[in-house]
Write a structure and sequence with these properties.
This protein folds into two domains: 120 residues, no CATH class; 127 residues, Alpha-Beta Plaits, CATH 3.30.70. By secondary structure, the chain is of the alpha+beta class. A hairpin with a 2-residue loop joins strand 2 and strand 3. The chain starts with a strand and ends in a 13-residue tail after the last strand. The radius of gyration is 24 Å and the shape is globular.
Length: 264
């Protein structure tokens, strides 16, 4: 097994002195190791030394397809970011941001310094909130669920069944269009409150665990002082529109602070 190591990054801050050393020293990362700081150009990255046998480029391609490994790594990555984000202003970096050595992290901090500082400024005193909107789950219909009844029906009833089925499909399509229009209303209303907003691809039923179609998967960057009014706006929309709304947060601003570094 390779003994080579790399540097896994969690986030970047410009105020490392505010990190509480007692909690920092107790934190472990995705590889089970202690964290350390890498500083350059007035910025500081929170890092962990990891084995490239598990976290190198080729290994990550395999591991990221293993849902059990991915869930464990994502939880550990978030645990570090969430703990530190309660102490300092932090730009969270995406999962699996790995450099070959600390020296390359220093070079990244120098190269991307202006963009990282802009992200720190943009997300200061703000948090990410997630909103997902689901259409109502389709109810089963007697026509679609009673083949035995059709076998006993009078001649000519097949044509009637096809007409009913056509009408059901048309109604289903209309319902989906109405749900999509309602989701657009939700996004427009919440984006007016937010400092920024991001639309993510809808998740599949396999990931959501529900048969209901996801019509909206969005993230909103909300000023801390506006968080109560944002939650109230979601409640008002939930009561007014024919959608099931799911609100999550507050989170570190993952969707609004990606610096984009890769394995090096």
């Amino acid at each position: 097994m390779s003994s080579e190591t790399g540097t896994w990054l969690y986030g970047v801050t410009d105020s490392p002195a505010a990190i509480r050393r007692d909690s920092f020293d107790d934190l472990t990362g995705v590889g089970g190791g202690k964290l350390h700081l890498v500083a350059a150009g007035g910025l500081t990255a929170v890092a962990e030394t990891v084995s490239l046998a598990e976290f190198g480029e080729a290994a990550l391609r395999r591991n990221l397809e293993d849902l059990s490994w991915l869930e464990s790594a994502a939880r550990a990555h978030h645990r570090v970011i969430d703990t530190l984000a309660h102490q300092v202003q932090l730009v969270p970096l995406r999962l699996a941001t790995v450099y070959s050595e600390d020296g390359n992290v220093e070079a990244m901090l120098a190269e991307h310094g202006p963009r990282l500082r802009a992200a720190l400024h943009r997300t200061a005193s703000r948090a990410e909130w997630g909103v997902k909107a689901y259409a109502d789950e389709p109810a089963s219909t007697p026509a679609a669920a009673a083949p035995a009844d059709r076998r006993k029906a009078a001649p000519g009833s097949g044509a009637a069944y096809l007409r009913r089925r056509r009408d059901e499909l048309a109604a289903s399509q209309q319902g989906r269009q109405e749900a999509l229009a309602s989701a657009q209303q939700v996004h427009a209303a919440l984006a007016r409150i937010a400092a920024d907003a991001r639309l993510h691809p809808p998740q599949s039923p396999e990931l959501t665990g529900t048969k209901a179609a996801m019509m909206l998967n969005a993230a909103y960057l909300i000023d801390d002082q506006h968080s109560a009014s944002f939650r109230q706006a979601v409640d008002d929309l939930r009561n007014r529109l024919p959608l099931r709304l799911e609100l999550t947060g507050p989170w570190p601003p993952y969707s609004f602070a990606d610096a984009g570094p890769e394995l090096r």
